[in-house]
From TrEMBL:
Topology class, membrane: Peripheral membrane protein
Domain Thioesterase: 122-193
Name listed for the protein in its UniProt record: Acyl-coenzyme A thioesterase THEM4
Pfam family, one: 4HBT
Lineage, top ranks: Bacteria, Bacillati, Actinomycetota, Actinomycetes, Streptosporangiales
Length: 213
């Protein structure tokens, strides 16, 4: 079913969300520790037992779905449960996106060893995931908002982890419910590592809701 972004969203307890964000960051640290650990097998087994107990504690009270998106009082779109940007979702980098004065979107990114695909480089699917969201944000920055229809990535150089880099995206043109958008991932030294183009489509019911905002 199409997500209905026009619906008012639940407002949360900010203090509890802050605590959840700290927990999510701890779990990211845990994931990195698992990926890189070299402790003996008995220690792995002992840590696993501890984690089983912790997981059961968290499962004592469960939601049906991740935290939903919401519009903040200052008019920003926030989605704490998002897989790419959600501060409360350990899966998210999280990607922190800024809007550029030119009307596009940008983010500083440092990938981690957890994101490895080919040896010593970031997985191409992880790079595509970052582009998907950043290009989608640029579409939203342009006043449209939509779902990805197509996304094409040109991988120019292996992307290293552990080094800060910058991603940019900006809309190139729009036509009705279609918006074309382009992006780049650039090393700190200015080398373009990957480029993306995408077509986002505004679902008809979103177009109506956006028009009413
Ligand atoms: C109140 C609203 C508030 C919104 C607030 C948002 C704020 C945002 C803020 C922050 C940004 C966040 C950023 C998120 C980024 C993440 C993005 C994702 O990961 S999205 C998940 C992956 N993508 C999907 O799951 C799509 C699944 N597909 C669909 O749902 C539909 O196929 C959809 C909506 C893409 C198109 O369905 P139709 O029914 O609207 O399309 P039809 O009416 O058939 O076609 C319209 C035109 O588009 C073309 N078209 C349709 N689908 C196409 C496609 N896949 N590729 C190319 N063209 C396509 C058609 O050929 C047609 O073109 P002709 O008018 O004839 O010229």
């Amino acid at each position: 079913m199409m997500p209905d972004l026009a619906q008012p969203q639940e407002s949360g307890d900010g203090t509890r969300f802050a605590a959840l964000a700290v927990l999510a960051q701890q779990v990211r640290d845990l994931v990195d520790a698992v990926v890189l650990t070299d402790v003996p097998e008995e220690e792995l087994t002992a840590v696993t037992a501890d984690l089983v107990a912790l997981t059961e504690r968290l499962k004592e009270s469960r939601r049906a779905a991740p935290l939903p998106h919401e519009w903040t009082p200052d008019g920003r779109f926030r989605h704490l449960g998002n897989a790419v940007t959600g501060e409360c979702n350990p899966h998210a980098l999280p990607l922190v996106i800024e809007r550029t004065p030119e009307g596009g979107s940008r983010a500083e990114i440092t990938f981690r060893p957890t994101h490895e695909g080919p040896p010593a480089a970031v997985h191409g699917g992880v790079i595509a995931m970052i582009f998907d969201h950043l290009l989608g944000d640029a579409v939203a920055a342009s006043g449209a908002a939509g779902l990805t229809g197509t996304l094409s990535v040109r991988y120019r150089r292996p992307v290293p982890y552990g080094q800060p880099m910058t991603a940019h995206a900006a809309v190139s043109r729009g036509e009705g419910r279609k918006t074309w958008v382009e992006g780049t991932l650039t090393s700190a030294g200015g080398t373009v590592l990957a480029e993306a183009t995408a077509l986002f489509i505004t679902p008809a019911q979103w177009a109506e809701a956006l028009g009413a905002r």
